[in-house]
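Dissemination and training. As part of the outreach component of the grant, students in the summer workshop were shown how a complex can be specified as a set of sequence lines and then modelled as a single object. The example used during the hands-on session is reproduced here so that future cohorts can follow it. Participants entered these lines:
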Amino acid sequence: KQEVTQIPAALSVPEGENLVLNCSFTDSAIYNLQWFRQDPGKGLTSLLLIQSSQREQTSGRLNASLDKSSGRSTLYIAASQPGDSATYLCAVQAGTALIFGKGTTLSVSS
Amino acid sequence: DAGVTQSPTHLIKTRGQQVTLRCSPKSGHDTVSWYQQALGQGPQFIFQYYEEEERQRGNFPDRFSGHQFPNYSSELNVNALLLGDSALYLCASSPATGQSTDTQYFGPGTRLTVL
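and obtained this result:
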């Protein structure tokens, strides 16, 4: 059974810091891995999608990496801003369903 | 493009009642998935509909049922509500191309509170 774990559960940083969020999964037979952002009480916004054959994807200040063999992914956020404060969710797709971690809640102070 | 829309936004029910949640997929998408997100947890897959049929189901009891209409919109029905059904219910749509580049687009969710 696929399980997704995210560490840390919560993170507080001052504005301008670079930070890394971690995601691990137990079964390497995945279709793709996605990182989502969720603001309190809201739906999910897709940030980056990495296909199983890819190693990383970049969008603006965000960079996500994927190491299928070790079952790990990282989301790197450069020069964090208060507007980055949200919960970040990692999800793997195997078949039609997305399997999510519990998320990392990020707070960036000005 | 309106994106994925869900209704209602909030809903309060009492134990034992039945509820119906609605979802309209993003334009051009024909596959709809439903997820339940309890407070402080990641979303959990309930089921997915394609061509008006349930294609895959997660680990949820039969009290949870769904339907997809010819225009690809979908309903989630929950019978005999329990306190533990209180959650944010998310609908996601995707194209049925089966490509690994396909992302699921999520709606804003329906917040269900069971008293």
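The radius of gyration of chain A is 13 Å. Students were then asked to discuss how this feature might be tested experimentally.
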